[in-house]
Amino acid sequence: MSIIHIKQQHSLGQEEIRHRVEKIAKGLKKEYKINYAWKSDQLLFKRSGASGFLGLGAGGVEVKIKLGLVLSPLKGNIEAAIKKNMAEELS
Question: CATH fold of 2-89, please?
């Protein structure tokens, strides 16, 4: 099992950051069949072979993903794609 842990700073308000994260989650659900649910300021998500959360904080977002054995070899590509997507959506 591999773990991806990313922190990204932002200067957006709480409502705007939540809206943008919801937009990202809807895209992931459509493209990768990821199920997600909000629990306070955390977006919990899961699909076959991966699970994790995206936490909203004042001035920052934290993502932690546990990859199963099948997705572990793709950790570098997955992490790079998430970082790129977060940088684009949260700036």
Answer: Double Stranded RNA Binding Domain (3.30.160)
Q: 79: closest CA among 18, 12, 4?
A: 4
* Cα(13)–Cα(3) distance, integer angstroms: 28
Q: How far is residue 91's CA from residue 88's CA, in Å, rounded to a whole number?
A: 6
Show me where the domains of the chain are located. 2-89
Whether the CA torsion 25, 42, 78, 51 is positive or negative: it is: negative
Per-residue pLDDT reduced to its tens digit, 6-57: 999 989 888 999 998 898 888 888 888 899 999 999 999 999 999 999 999 8
Backbone angles phi, psi at 59, to 5 degrees: 80, 5
Q: Is residue 45 exposed (0-12), middle (13-18) or buried (19+ Cβ within 10 Å)?
A: buried
